[in-house]
Amino acid sequence: MVERPHKKSKRVWQGNEAGFTLMELLIVMAVILILLAFAIPNLIGVKKHANEVSARNSLKAINTAEIQYASTYPAEGFACNIAALGGGLGEPQNAQAAHMLSQDLTTGQKDGYTFTIANCSKVSVNGKDQFTAYSVTAVPQTPGKTGDKGFCTDESGEVRMDPQGGSACTTAAK
What distance lies between CA 48 and its chain's CA centroid? Predict the structure, then answer.
């Protein structure tokens, strides 16, 4: 058997053999854009829902902190300022910085919602004001974008909802 010397094959570039045409690339891009057009609104809806769940949970945390605050500082009653429920690192614990609520919530802004303590009722005991009632609202920072519903609670602990995104909470939150 005679061996032949191995010849290297020469490959000549021909434009129609490899790669995608411009039309094929445009079609693939169009399909991706159509899929994104359906996916993005769903993702925004999921984010809004997550913000609303976070707002309800934050209201429950504020209620828990208020109950703890009132039992720790009975002469004060409830806190009528959300910042009083928090406190900075290294700051001593007192009625103005109770360290009962996480720092991210005591700023009044969390997950697209603004939290406010208001409508505080007070009585005077031995010449010192003591807060006996409060209400907390959580409203979307950008209604329709960061959330659709507003939420409220008070010393009863029941979280109610405003389907319009405000603070006129009349419906029980689910």
Answer: 8
